[in-house]
Write a structure and sequence with these properties.
Order of helices and strands: EEEHEHEHEHEHEEHEEEHEEHEHHH
Helix content: 25-40%
Shape: globular
Number of helices: 11
Strand order of the largest sheet: 5-4-3-6-7-8-13
Protein name: NAD-dependent epimerase/dehydratase domain-containing protein
GO biological process, one term: monosaccharide metabolic process
Pfam family, one: Epimerase
GO molecular function, one term: UDP-glucose 4-epimerase activity
InterPro entries: Epimerase_deHydtase (IPR001509), NAD(P)-bd_dom_sf (IPR036291)
Structural class: alpha/beta
Length: 378
């Protein structure tokens, strides 16, 4: 039953909700390439007994990573509350999810409505409820985390979604967890959060994804390519196209988040999480085409220094080599990514873009500027 507690003109409400996912119950769609079906079930045993059931708070949880993570945690028997501002539906039924699975999830998930930047509300509401574990999916600054720690002095574990973007640019790759970090990076707030967690002496675990992709992705990573492939347009790629990067599927990331829960080997540790293979920009364009059943794409290379696109981005990736080692997570946690790149892109396409759903409308304005010049196609 729903219960309401008024705190400082903010509404703290807990109620069963409705939501949905893309393929957690099994039966994924074939790609147009007739890729083999594969049930998405995390490797390893995540059996939950009454004694191991946790009261878990997820900061965020309605957009991308948290959607997949919350379903896994509920399925494992934990009591899960999502902390959001309530501007988006807390749950939605996703492609491939059965009505029964959706109803079961929506009857168990709880919602705490509030603004995490309202520190007084965070302290009062969290201390009143008490949580065993916090997953911070959307935290960007250390000052957003400190009130959570203050409110929960008996917290068993704080699991943080950081970023591989914190590493200092280097000629020696892949990035390892022990590599130098860049205090001036645009992710410096995540670095400061990791430092805060260490200084507070809490049991913390930090996950550093590289580029994340998959159904519901709000960052136009694969969607950028799918828009151009569907329109039958050339794909403009900066420089040589042999820049190497790395993508990790959101469902593999969610599995990693579950595997660090209550894991002594993850205590005060950082883990890179991404896909097994690295890929060039040109290779990614071809992989997206293969996953969606499109013809071999026409790729056009250009020198980004020849153009001024203003505030618009002409390409969704940083124009450099950028990839990280996942060997520590494999060795310490026993975690393994289950999706290879083409299969993962097919999962994303079939359960999202291929159904006509996407986050952003196609914008080819920068493409047209590039293609308006005399360039060499490869």
């Amino acid at each position: 039953m729903a219960r309401m507690v008024a705190l400082q003109q903010n509404q703290l409400s807990f109620s069963p909700l409705a939501s949905s996912l893309s393929d957690f119950s099994g039966t994924r769609l074939h790609t147009q390439l007739q890729l083999k079906r594969k049930l998405w079930q995390p490797k390893g045993s995540f059996s939950v007994s009454a004694s191991s059931t946790k009261k878990i708070l997820i900061m965020g949880g309605t957009r991308f990573i948290g959607v997949f993570l919350s379903r896994l945690l509920v399925k494992e028997g934990h009591q899960v509350t999502l902390f959001t501002r309530g501007k988006a539906p807390v749950t939605q039924q996703l492609p491939g999810e059965s009505d029964g699975d959706y109803a079961d999830f929506s009857s168990k998930i709880l919602h705490l409505k509030g603004d995490r930047k309202d520190f007084d509300f965070v302290k009062s509401s969290l201390s009143a409820e008490g949580y065993d574990v916090v997953y911070d999916i959307n935290g960007r600054e250390a000052d957003e985390v400190e009130p959570i720690l203050d409110a929960l002095p008996n917290l068993e574990q704080f699991i943080y979604c950081s970023s591989a973007g914190v590493y200092l640019k280097s000629d020696l790759l892949p990035h390892a967890e022990t590599d130098a970090v860049d205090p001036k990076s645009r992710h410096k707030g995540k670095l400061e959060t990791e430092s805060l967690l260490q200084s507070k002496g809490v049991n913390w675990t930090s996950i550093r994804p590289v580029y994340i992709y998959g159904p519901l992705n709000y960052n136009p990573v694969e969607e950028w390519f799918f828009h151009r492939l569907k329109a039958g347009r050339p794909i403009p790629i900066p420089s040589s196209g042999i820049q190497i990067t790395q993508l990790g599927h959101v469902k593999d990331l969610a599995t990693a988040f579950v595997q660090v829960l209550g894991n002594d080997k993850a205590r005060k540790e950082v883990f890179n999480i991404s896909g097994e293979k690295y890929v060039t920009f040109d290779g990614l364009a071809r992989a997206c085409a293969k996953a969606g059943g499109f013809p071999e794409p026409e790729i056009v290379h250009y020198n980004p220094k020849d153009f001024d696109f203003g505030k618009k981005k002409s390409f969704p990736f940083r124009d450099q080599h950028f990839f990280a080692s996942i060997e520590k997570a494999k060795r310490v946690l026993g975690w393994e990514p289950e999706f290879d790149l083409v299969e993962g892109l097919a999962d994303s396409y079939n359960l999202d873009f291929g159904r006509g759903t996407f986050r952003k409308e196609a914008d080819f304005s920068t493409d047209d500027i590039i293609l308006g010049k005399s360039l060499v196609s490869v």
